[in-house]
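In this section we walk through a basic example: taking a raw amino acid sequence and producing a predicted 3D structure, encoded as discrete structure tokens. The instruction is simple. Fold the sequence below.
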Amino acid sequence: MKRLLYSLLAALLITGCAGFSGGNGAAVDEVQLFGLPVTVNLDGIPGADGFAVRAYATKGGVAKGAAIDSGILEILMFDGVIRTDDLMASQPTQTWKFGPKQLAQFKEKTSLGIGYRFALRWQQPPTRGHITVVARYVSPKGRQVYSSPSTISASNK
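The resulting token sequence is shown next.
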């Protein structure tokens, strides 16, 4: 697991294109989420109004990211820092849901395999100094796979 995380982080720094093989049709085993450390300004008006993340799903024990061809990928945003142990009991401030057809516009091939790059704008700005973001894959049968939470500094400047 740590080896995969280190590989993914290194590849994010050196983004290059690569082919993908394996894992198609298998169930999603893990979801990895990587984000910028700060919120971003997406509309050109002063002040942060969103965040940018990349999500990778692994299937069938293959370490590279695989395409999500069924189920739903959700990105959950929480106001403040949420501990992993408290995620299930916490209500997200906002949730974005993407099925396979919607994911196609965010899909990209990198040296990490197939992933999804999002720049997401919130409807309600955070009230605390940080947000916590989590990716959740929901299979067609309802099985849920969560990424580790990512804490992002929420600046209003």
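Looking at the output, two observations stand out. The radius of gyration is 15 Å. The beta strands are 28-35, 50-59, 72-79, 94-98, 107-110, 113-121, 130-138, 144-146, 150-153. In the next section we compare this with other chains.
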